[in-house]
Design goal:
Helix 2 packs across helix 5. 76% of the residues lie in helices and 0% in strands. It starts with 9 loop residues before the first helix and ends with a helix. The mean pLDDT is 85. By secondary structure, it is mainly α.
Length: 184
Amino acid sequence: MLHKERYFSTFQLILLALLAALIVVAKIALRLPLQLSGHSGIFWMAIVIVAAGVVHKPGAATLVGLTSGLLAAFLGLGDFGALNTLLSYTAVGLGTDLALWLLGGNPESLAVAVLAATFGHMSKFLVKWGMGVVTGAPLGFVALGLLKAMIGYLIFGALGGFLGALTLRALKRAGFFAYLAEKR
């Protein structure tokens, strides 16, 4: 009888689920009183980049985005309802995975991590903007804060990617990846 190996091991799925839960916890607990669009991206883009580096397979960031989106929607997080929350969190993962794939996929590289996180966070912005247009939000209202919001998403996404890459480097120096190799 043939035994087909799964794409993600059970151990990897558990790690990704824990990181997805950490995103939701960070969204709840680490609120900065900045009043700037996308400011939470500094925390959770770092976690997405760490997830993509810890489970170094295409689709890891997407799975974290989808899982954290499901958790966040279930808990009632987000400012535009459950569907928007689910779609925007999933878009973060998809955008990050796509950028990592296009850039060669090494989230430990500062440049790659910053660009991937920026692209991933902008994906969330595009979902929020698209949902606003689809649901009939007045275009003047949507366009009014568009540039300011876009700049916030770019900056905080980049900072999150930078923190994620630094975290991956620290984990590597601490021997975390050698430990993971033993557990697989």
